[in-house]
Amino acid sequence: MFKTENAPDYTLLTVILSLVIIGIVMVYSSSYVWAEYKYGDTFFYVKRQLLFCGAGVAAMLFFMAIPYGTWKKYSKIILLVCFILLLAVLIPGIGMVRGGAQSWIGVGAFSIQPSEFMKLGLIIFLAVFLSVNQKYITSFKKGFFPSLILVFSAFGLIMLQPDLGTGVVLVLTSMVMIFIAGARLSHFFGLASIGIVGFLYLIISAPYRIDRITAFLNPWEDPSDTGFQIIQSLYAIGPGGLTGVGLGNSLQKHFYLPEPQNDFIFAILGEELGFLGGTFVIVLFMLLFWRGVKIALEAPDAYGRFLALGIVSMLTIQVMINISVVIGLIPVTGITLPFLSYGGSSLTLTLCSVGILLNISRYTKL
After folding, report:
1. Global pTM?
2. What is the pLDDT of residue 111?
3. Distance of alpha carbon 334 from alpha carbon 205, whole angstroms
4. Do residues 363 and 3 make contact, with C-beta atoms less than 8 angstroms apart?
């Protein structure tokens, strides 16, 4: 039997709400210059972000109240809907192109990004699959290979948009779940060999990806084009020093760093709040990781453990990639920073995910 009358993990909830509040403040601070220039309204982005936050927090509380076992019953339907959305976004007239990727479906004045739904949908389905078939996971034919087919089918559809960043997060999250389930290292080594070749092909097949690699290796070779974004990001972080130039006083958001409220919001945070502000946000993410892993380890069943670890892995991988890009450790990938970056689909689905994690925290073994 499971004890269900526990309160949720309030430490985790506090961390989440703190990140959301910091996100609202930073979206406004980083976007008001662009918002005034593009829309004549300094509050344009933050008003929309507040709507996303309201919907997302409501969804989080809704998911927190629903027993996580409910999603197990509907995992196949959830995954099917996610695949249908990924196919629909590729249809001309339905899918919307932004930043060179056909990744959005318009819904009235707003839009949704199906790949964000797929990340959560695949985690739910894999949690069910791995909990039921964990005894077969050491078998390539019965456990490992079926998992790969599922993961790379989703990855393939995302790459048709194309959206390499989201695809990488989805694959890495899935691999973490499969590894934790007990898959053989020899299978991963074989997969890694194929993956390296495939990854190189994806880079070579798209000139803009090659440009991102060369810009990463030497951004100063083309400072006005391919290296522009990372140079401006470093220009933002560098002057921040220990305590920053002050909230709202960023120079780089004045048309130097393109759309700083999105993927590079951490650069503006580092400029305005300095090393201490950036460290505080990273510590909050570390607390989220710690509490998430603790919840997973104490979950009452294998499905709950895989589900919690999948959600925590997804968020941690996304945070690591985003911050690594911003500080110049890896090439630009186009990944949002969870809870902080501007965007409806990403924020709402992230809050839904942690809502499930909070629900798992309400269950303990008797």
Report:
1. 0.91
2. 76
3. 18
4. yes
